[in-house]
């Protein structure tokens, strides 16, 4: 019997690596980060481009970028306002021209030392090399519990397997990037989309560094919003759980109805029962409101999709020192 071997992937002889860096108020360390990134890329990439996506920063990001704008291999895309990290990443991915695209945060948390290893795995034939946070012990109990619940819901309800603790830090082959760009949805929960497109992927564990300066832009509220976007984009499990819960309550109510009918017929009932009624009414109004809320959450997403607004708007795009007129996607 002939054992089928994997089809070898052909990679370009002189590949160009694109690095997409979403930056929102990172001016304190952006310039130093770009220098370090350039030094790292020069050690292993034949050619590269660094795409800094300014996601509507309100700090000195423009000034920090100024000395870099005329440098070769630097592209600067300024969005017209803060659209959020997912949209900034989408913008960078849309404009990247490399054979492989690396997504990386601007705050030094994603180790630069890992990039050569990522590139090597890509040359070995992997299409997506994604960083997985190896140690989350420094995070709060509440955050870890929330993350655990989120992944549990996704694993049970979503037809795809979203790797636990994988973030946006990754290298993607051009084929993966093209596939991502074909996905039409507005609700871009990137972690889900990376998993949805598939391709030959491998995890690379890493321990994130400390943020160079400033604080994370994702507080508990932001993370909950992101988790909700992920759940509604990838699974209808909450709707199904609620249907099952509704069916369960209906059965209990029916049994109880039989019980009181029987009681009235055979024993006689002289208790008015208003307290049971009042409690039941309050309970079921609450349950109905929650159901409407869950339905509304999905409906709201449909509304967002049908409006077909652009994911982001570009104020200006400076490529190797040349300003290109503002375009929209
Ligand atoms: N970021 C962005 N837009 C936002 C929030 C964050 O482009 O609205 C960028 C930010 O500048 C950084 C990356 O996304 O490069 C990750 O953000 P952060 O470090 O705040 O998040 P965390 O590391 O806590 O996940
Ligand atoms: Mg960070």
SSE layout and pairing:
Elements (H helix, E strand, L loop, with lengths): L15 E8 L3 H18 L2 E8 L6 H5 L8 E6 L5 H11 L4 E4 L11 H9 L4 E6 L7 H17 L8 E8 H9 L7 H8 L3 E6 L13 H15 L2 H31 L6 H34 L6 E6 L2 E3 L5
Parallel strand pairs: 1-2, 1-4, 2-3, 5-7
Antiparallel strand pairs: 3-8, 4-6, 5-6, 8-9
The protein binds uridine-5'-diphosphate (UDP) and magnesium ion (MG).
Write up what this structure looks like.
This protein is an alpha/beta fold. The chain has 10 helices and 9 strands. The protein has helices spanning about 25-45, 60-65, 85-95, 115-125, 140-155, 175-180, 190-195, 220-235, 235-265, 275-305; strands spanning about 15-25, 45-55, 75-80, 100-105, 130-135, 165-175, 200-205, 315-320, 320-325. A 9-stranded mixed beta sheet has the order 7-5-6-4-1-2-3-8-9, with helices on both faces. A hairpin with a 2-residue loop joins β8 (about 315-320) and β9. α5 (about 140-155) runs parallel beside α8. The longest helix is centred in the C-terminal third of the chain and has 34 residues, at about 275-305. The radius of gyration is 26 Å and the shape is elongated. The model has no long low-confidence stretch (mean pLDDT about 85). The structure holds uridine-5'-diphosphate (UDP) and magnesium ion. The site of uridine-5'-diphosphate has 16 residues, from β1 and α3. The site of magnesium ion has 5 residues, from loops.
